[in-house]
Amino acid sequence: MSIIAVVGNKGGTGKTTLALNLATGLGRSGDAVIIIDADPQQSAYQWRLTGADDNGVPAVVAAAIGLDKTVRALVAAHAHVVIDCPPSIKAPQAEQALRLAQIALVPVQPSPMDLWATTHIARVIEQLRPDNPRLAAHIVMSQLEPRTTLSRLMPEAAAELDLPVARTGIRRRSIHRHCALDGRSVYQAGKRGAEAAAEIDDLIAEIIPHDRP
Ligand SMILES: Nc1ncnc2c1ncn2[C@@H]1O[C@H](COP(=O)(O)OP(=O)(O)O)[C@@H](O)[C@H]1O
Ligand SMILES: [Mg+2]
């Protein structure tokens, strides 16, 4: 069982995109997965409404109000609960999600300003640590463009931050936007989505603890 909060302090970094694709990837093993949309803007909820019912993207429950209760009600029946948070670490939903989660993912775009903004997130996570000592938080480099110098330098710069950086980064690929248009994940995009989906699989393998027999 895992509760994964996708959080950040900015809009447009890729939280909703990561939450939807991560949840879809987690569900491919047959595990019960649910997405909780904790953002009052309801992008994840809208995304799911746009898609076909049986397209493999897990169900999305909108819970910007009553997040705590919703998570507690759903956690027993699901192997993974993925919470998509509003674009502010000060939002009460983000704080609640960080109290409930075992894993926090912080997508960060390859720009110095975005990296600096994560200092504040690390501080909030540390403040909550006494209430949630087992929370494992990772920065996930998002919308990377490997051919640019900035993207190449970012992992190094991010290493200076107070939060660990996941080895797996998410590249900027137009298939992510195409998929959002019709409510799919990159797993439903056939060959065109294969590389993007493999990246999500790598992230899952990296961040989800595997019980050893
Ligand atoms: N890896 C990616 N490659 C290309 N476009 C992306 C990627 N991740 C997100 N996007 C696009 O960037 C925009 C913001 O993403 P979104 O997931 O809504 O961010 P947030 O939830 O942090 O506000 C959307 O148009 C989305 O389609
Ligand atoms: Mg969002």
From TrEMBL:
What Pfam families does the annotation carry?
CbiA
- What's the superkingdom here? Bacteria
Q: Which residues form the CobQ/CobB/MinD/ParA nucleotide binding domain?
A: 4-170
- List the InterPro entries hit by this protein, alphabetically: CobQ/CobB/MinD/ParA_Nub-bd_dom, DNA_Partitioning_ATPase, McdA, P-loop_NTPase
Q: Which residues form a coiled coil?
A: none
- Its recorded name reads ParA family protein
In which organism is this protein found?
Thiohalocapsa marina
The top of its lineage is: Bacteria, Pseudomonadati, Pseudomonadota, Gammaproteobacteria, Chromatiales
